[in-house]
Design a protein that fits this description.
By secondary structure, the protein is α+β, with helices and mostly antiparallel strands. The protein has 4 domains: 72 residues, 2-Layer Sandwich (Phosphorylase Kinase, domain 1), CATH 3.30.200; 208 residues, Transferase(Phosphotransferase) domain 1 (Transferase(Phosphotransferase), domain 1); 108 residues, no CATH class; 74 residues. Helix content is 50%, strand content 8%. Strand 7 and strand 8 form a beta hairpin. Helix 16 packs antiparallel against helix 21. The longest helix is centred in the last third of the chain and has 39 residues. The radius of gyration is 40 Å and the shape is elongated.
């Protein structure tokens, strides 16, 4: 047990310090024996009078609501000289840094059961905590993910409260620190010394944090700039270039690839993000308040539905397709852990019975034969017959002219006259035939259209009235059944693969345990780390030259530093040959196969009803299409008869 001479609370009672719980740049936190619900924060350096006054003011204004949601100072600890050395505050247990909840990889270990519903609920609780601070007339000021903790039940606690801006009737104690990636445009690049923060400033940082939660750790201003030059997050904030906005193109920004879009959440919530990050937000009370966020997020919670394909996916109910399925398919990154769902259990799922129901569905009878020309007696139309007669008469006239010319020549006409009559006869024949040919063009067009209509009708008949759809569905169900029956073999092969790749799996796990956010890498500060995270690079494992070069603002020098950092971590890795397959990898495999099994069983359960439905659709289509087929065929026969009659 550690003792500090004459450390007393404001009542003059001696306070002893227990085990060291943690240490930071400003101070250290200790257990307090005899007060399990409290801990003590002791500063490394003597406190300035203003800081001491702030602690006294905070202790005086404590309330049950403050103590339930924050690590608020409940008492001041004074040294032998009577000057404050630190303070007592509620102990926060069972909570983790909210940053561990943002991204899929950190969430997998810290919050393995969290789905998107959990993230939305956590976001609402964060907004409630901010609203409570503002209700007490205070401002958080230094909003950042290091000052918010979350439990496995989505409860939220705010820490580092001694940095808040505290407003009392007599004095105002300012917050003189801040993180650039959470700082609003109007304060970007400015010193916080002497700056009076407002709830509207907090509203910007709150919106950043909520965006991180709902959008898988993406920063709303981390995108690709379509103009010239670099666009770091701080500059994008100062220029209001919200990369996910409906106006992003006008701002020459586009979001990182394979991310949730702003229209994939409720209109109420997306509108609040637009307001929070707009130019108009700079105005007094221009950004959404914490209470507005609570209302909108509560509404979103009521509009979430489960994905029909992946049981671990939940999304906004108005969407026609699951956005998480699309993102996972594009990136290969599992966004939410897979868990065994309580669907049909192996003990009650009788494959033999279910498959018999499928095979008992009789296919439709063979479709009727298409119409046969022998069954129809089609005569040329009156119009076609008239044209045919006219063409016949014209031919007779033409041939008579030729015949007359020949007779004239044979009768001994002068050579010049005979030639004249022959040429004249040929001209007359050509004229009458050409003149009558112009009347036949419409029959060519009619045949062309009738033939196309017939081919389209036949295609539709085969597609809708044939048995192909029924047999394709049955074949697909056979494949599903075979996949279901092969799951034990699949597991055995996948497990053997895990065995063979143990060294790589251990290396991956080792590198994934080294988060970029916690590392000290030259020239890679909080802004660049947020940019990396927005492009799915959050651990040493994620760092490859190809991946880093895709991130805006990362050229040769920064890429080289990140690769060197990864190599420095990798050199510390030692393969443990005696260690078997990681139980977490086995659990992940079993969760994946259990989810696959559930989906296959659901498909087979629906198999018989779907086959019956297809059969009904086919027989119904036959009745509906029969007359259409006959009409199209008769039209084609008529067109053929007319075409033949007019001689084309």
């Amino acid at each position: 047990m550690r003792t500090m001479s004459a450390l007393k609370n404001r009542k003059g009672e001696n306070i002893q310090l227990g085990r060291l719980l943690g240490k930071g740049g400003e101070g250290a936190v200790y257990e307090v024996p005899g007060a399990s619900s409290l801990v003590a924060k002791i500063y490394h350096q003597p406190l300035a009078p203003e800081k001491a006054g702030k602690l006294h003011a905070m202790s005086d204004m404590k309330t049950d609501r403050l103590l339930s949601l924050t690590a608020w100072p409940v008492d001041v600890l004074n040294g032998p000289d009577g000057k404050p050395k630190g303070f007592l505050m509620p102990q926060v247990t069972g909570h983790k840094d909210i940053h561990a909840l943002y991204t899929p990889k950190s969430r997998k270990d810290s919050f393995p059961e969290a789905d998107w519903r959990f993230l939305v609920h956590t976001a609402a609780n964060v907004a409630r905590a901010f609203a409570m601070i503002h209700d007490h007339g205070c401002v958080i000021g230094d909003v950042n993910h290091g000052s918010v903790l979350v439990s496995a039940k989505a409860t939220v606690r705010l820490i580092d409260c001694d940095s808040f801006q505290i407003n009392t009737p007599k004095q105002q104690f300012l917050c003189t620190v801040g993180v650039p990636t959470y700082t609003p445009a109007e304060l970007q690049g400015k010193s916080f010394k002497g700056v009076v923060r407002s709830a509207n400033h907090d509203a910007f940082g709150l919106a950043i944090m909520l965006f991180h939660l709902l959008f898988m750790g993406r920063h709303p201003f981390a995108g690709r700039f379509l103009g010239k030059g670099d666009m770091p997050i701080e500059r994008a904030i100062s220029e209001h270039r919200f990369a996910f906005s409906s106006y992003a193109k006008q701002a020459l920004m586009e979001p990182p690839p394979h991310t949730l879009q702003l229209n994939a959440i409720s209109p109420q919530v997306s509108l609040l993000f637009e307001r929070a990050f707009s130019r108009e937000g700079i105005r007094d009370n221009g950004r959404p308040t914490a209470r507005e966020w609570v209302t909108a997020l509560e509404g979103l919670e009521k509009q979430i539905k489960k994905c029909g394909t992946n049981a671990s996916h939940y999304h906004f109910s108005n969407l026609t397709a699951c956005p998480w399925c699309k993102i996972e398919a594009a990136t290969g990154v599992i966004l939410f852990s897979l868990f065994i769902q309580h669907g049909p259990q192996s003990s009650t799922y009788n494959m033999a019975v279910i498959w018999k129901k499928i095979t008992d569905v009789t296919p439709p009878p063979p479709p009727p034969e298409l119409p046969n020309g022998n069954a129809y007696k089609i005569q040329p139309s009156t119009d076609a017959q008239a044209i045919a007669g006219k063409r016949k008469n014209n031919k007779v006239i033409g041939y008579l002219a030729i015949g007359g010319a020949i007779l004239a020549a044979l009768a001994g006409a002068a050579p010049g006259a005979a030639s004249f009559w022959l040429i004249a006869g040929a001209v007359v024949l050509h004229y009458v035939l050409s003149n009558s040919k112009g009347d036949t063009g419409k029959f060519s067009t009619a045949y062309y259209e009738a033939n196309n209509a017939w081919n389209a009708t036949v295609d539709r008949w085969q597609r809708e009235a044939g048995n192909k759809r029924f047999h394709e569905k049955l074949d697909q169900l056979r494949k599903v059944k075979a996949e279901w029956e092969g799951l034990p073999t699949t597991r055995q092969k996948r497990y053997q693969q895990l065995q063979n790749e143990r060294q790589q799996a251990q290396l991956k796990r080792f590198l994934e345990s080294h988060l970029i956010d916690r590392a000290k890498i030259k020239d890679v500060g909080s802004s660049r780390k947020a940019m990396l995270e927005s492009y799915n690079i959050e651990t040493a494992w994620d760092i490859t030259e190809r991946a880093v070069r895709r991130v805006p603002g990362f050229g040769d020098a920064l890429t080289k530093r990140l690769l060197e950092w990864r190599r420095s971590i990798e050199r510390k890795f030692v393969f443990n040959a005696s260690q078997g397959v990681d139980p977490r990898d086995i659990a992940a495999l079993d969760r994946e196969l259990a989810d696959t099994k559930r989906k296959l069983e659901a498909q087979l359960l629906a198999g018989a009803p779907e086959l019956i439905q297809i059969r009904t659709q086919i027989t119904t289509s036959r009745g509906a299409l029969q007359k259409e087929v006959e009409r199209a065929y008769v039209r084609l026969l008529q067109a053929e008869a007319d075409k033949k009659a007019v001689g084309i």
